[in-house]
Amino acid sequence: MRVDMTVNGERRQADDVWEGESLLYVLRERLGLPGSKNACEQGECGSCSVYLDGEVVCACLVAAGQAAGREVVTVEGLADDAGDTEASVSAGLHPVQQAFLDAGAVQCGFCTPGLVVAVHDLLARNPSPDDAEIREALAGNLCRCTGYESILVAVRDAAGRLR
Amino acid sequence: MSAGEAPTTVRRDGGVGTDASRPDGTLKVTGEFAYGSDLWMDDMLWGVTLRSPHPHARIRSVDVGLALAVPGVFAVLTADDVPGELYYGLEIADQPVLAKDKVLYQGEPVALVAADHPETARRACARIVVDYDVLEPVTDARTALGHGTNSPSEDLHPEDPPVVENSREAALLRPEGNQIRHLKIRKGDVEAAAAAADVVVSGEYEVGMQDQAFLGPESGLAVPAEDGGVDLFVSTQWLHVDQQQICRALGLPPEKVRLTLAGVGGAFGGREDLSMHAHACLLALRTGKPVKMSYNREESFFGHVHRHPARLHYEHGFTRDGDLLFVRARIWLDGGAYASSSAAVVGNAGLMGVGPYVVPNVRMDCWGAYTNNPPCGAMRGFGAVQAAFAYESQMDKGAAALGMDPVEVRVRNAMREGSVAPTGQVVDSAAPVAELLRRLQAMPMPAPPHDGFHDADLTAMPGGVSNTTHGEGVRRGVGWAVGYKNIGFSEGFDDFSTARVRLEMTGGEPTVTVHTAAAEVGQGLVTVQQQIARTELGVDRVVVAPADTAVGSGGSTSASRQTYVTGGAVQEACRRVRSAVLARAGRDDWADVRDDLAAVLGDEAVEETVIWRHRPTEAVDPDTGQGNAHVQYAFAAHRAVVDVDVELGLVKVVEMACTQDVGRAINPLAVVGQIHGGSAQGMGLAVMEEVVVTDGIIRNPSFTDYLIPTILDMPPMQVEVLELPDPHAPYGLRGVGEPPTVSSGPAVLAAIRDATGQFLTRVPVRPEDITHP
């Protein structure tokens, strides 16, 4: 089948999509956007988190056909809405991304794209989360490298940068 | 060797000792970093593996006809299609590339399919007909060895498989039946000490099977080349040992099997062994097309080795003042169906089996056994983790019997510089066991439970938002543990790394390129390489070339060894470049020459390649375990605070505190990150992580059923890093990655015991272990 959707602000089309393919597969293998990661492909790890019409979803749990005609934003598209980023943020990065780098919240990095999307969403809803709120919001994103301490530092820092 | 010298050039921003940023960081936060599973080529095929559903069976026949007939399928391969040696292995070549005649564990690869879509390949796989004669599996390590049973079990590897050249234990291994290795330590006179001891405590302990659970699946892309060879881009831990094994399987020389590291989404030991490497190459060479393989999570549980489950029997004897007189111990590690690195894990568990204590009399027996359980091998902590649960439990039991504080018993018996290990090896650099514990004691305790728990946030409660308690039945406990781990490969292994460093002017600026084959798996080795080059050469712009087999081996990214060994190689290569440039300039002041490099170098590059070794180690005596087996030890200690709902058996870890000596923190931010992550993995083993295997079948191969700590499970941590330089190591550094995984779990277990008053003997602690002991 053919699937049309808006991805990171652009109209995109995928042809010859098998009905069983997930949104994640289409993004990664057909649209050249492998930033959303395939760590569990069963909705447990959050590594494939993307926005679908403004809601964060696990792209592995969304059938490609369900995304037809809808708007998808992936980690590759986040820096585009960074707006007037402050001087401490490198060109092409969103403040959340910069905060992850500065805090040492990136080791192997496989969970990072999903976490960046989840934190982006959290801070849009709650600009000043306390630690309990951060933990609750990120409970669906597994990280095996960092023990999460530096991720908490990154979220607090990103919240400060964005306020 | 440049032992312990201070850096001779000025410390620069981004040099050794700074929180330099990762060179791959920007790509990782934007999603552009290419992991093995992200690789893609026009016209590539997808490879899929058919695995055995049985833990033990004879294969009567394999019929691939129906699979080959599926449109879109390009190849179906079985053991008969392996052109080279069928058997491979890290230390013993006992594992078939594809099963022939028999399968020895559930999930063993039997056949491969390449097709133009992964679903096509999976459907074709399902149409392969394998006729199995199902056999009774051997599922207990002690039974497999004939220990404590009347009926010795069937030998799973009746013929001695060859020990491979790169074996860590080549001289020691004499496989007898299902025994992979028997490590013995005989030190002092244990019988006399037992007669003299005032207080003797004994215990039987059990450690479950843990999974590395790296998030990036096993994956890679094999591309057939015009010379009849193959280029493999793969997520792995040691390119050159992969290359050796793939060459054997393909029957090709190394120059025709070229490996490049693809991005690695975590490793933790689980990528030491081959997974899809040889399979993708076989399919690519057969089809003449690029072939990508990428496991899903379920397959990943079958696609790599796990941490050995263990049973441990210990007896400790003390004087009435609390001095340790003897330890008598027997450890059984279940190696599963194939040896992998079991022999070295047995060595570690036994050689570090009494913990970082001075024990004059030791009798240790540690066995690794073949069974029909999933193969076990390397995981962060590598044998030292299992032993630590037992010896730290024993120290607590001893303290209780002596009426002493658990920290005081540990401090009293603590190993220190100059102490003699159970192997007879003198500890010849800092061993601050007592200091780590004292500093831990001085760290502030977390706030006591607020108002008898009743106002607390539910997420802070055992059971969390399941709303199982508002504080009723909740008890707080505190536990202490200390552990140690050998750094680098031990027991006489020729452990080296290769670094190529080039200095040249590019765009008017001096540029250093560092090229090694050492695998960056997330730990930050790429950053460390840049930092060392900046410090040694005083040049800001340092490029780390992709790791590949075009340069010599970097050794394995394991045993917490890369900063030490590849770091040592990069340091030495930089110093040779510096000498060569000084000679060319006819000057002797590097600071001067560095500011004048454009004139000195012109458009030429200066390049040096160095093979660097740490101090040699020795094999231990096979009868007594005596010998200088290790190059360096690293120590960490933990304090854990837990709240336990004793009615439901639910545990909430409230806080962990860690002290660790790292010799010299090359990148303090990355060091603390290693301590956080390593502590989390140890905690996971204590309270939640277990690959549940019954009758040889894995019952929970998913992240739904195999639980790793989430951000709600992981407590806040306090970390204090000591830097007591090791004069034998580059910059005085000590390996960092593994020690926190050794001591965090035992501290959590001790805290749960303190909260419940029950002497729990098994990890992970399950709710029923607390409610129905």
Descriptive account of the structure:
- The complex is a heterodimer of chains A (163) and B (773).
- Chain A is an alpha+beta fold and 163 residues long.
- Chain A has five helices and five strands.
- Chain B is α+β, with helices and mostly antiparallel strands and 773 residues long.
- Chain B has a seven-stranded mixed β-sheet, sandwiched between helices. A six-stranded mixed β-sheet of chain B has the order 9-18-17-16-10-30, with helices on both faces. Chain B has a four-stranded mixed β-sheet with strand order 20-25-26-29, sandwiched between helices.
- Chain B is globular and about 75 Å long.
- Classes of the chains: A alpha+beta (163), B alpha+beta (773).
**Helical run tally of chain B:** 19
Strand content of chain A: 5-15%
Span of the ends, CA to CA of chain A: 44 Å
Largest interface: A-B, 60 and 62 residues
Biggest sheet of chain B, in brief?
7 strands, mixed
From the alpha carbons, calculate the radius of gyration of chain B and give it in angstroms: 26 Å
Overall, the morphology of chain B is globular
Number of helices of chain A: 5
**Main sheet record of chain A:** 5 strands, mixed
**Coarse morphology of chain A:** globular
Structural class of chain B: alpha+beta
Q: Give the overall pLDDT of chain A as a whole number.
A: 95
Q: Which consecutive residue ranges of chain A, at least 5 long each, have pLDDT under 50? A: none
As laid out across the biggest beta sheet of chain B, the strand order is 3-7-1-14-11-12-13
- Which percent band covers the strand fraction of chain B? 25-35%
Number of strands of chain A: 5
Neighbour order of strands in the largest sheet of chain A = 2-1-5-3-4
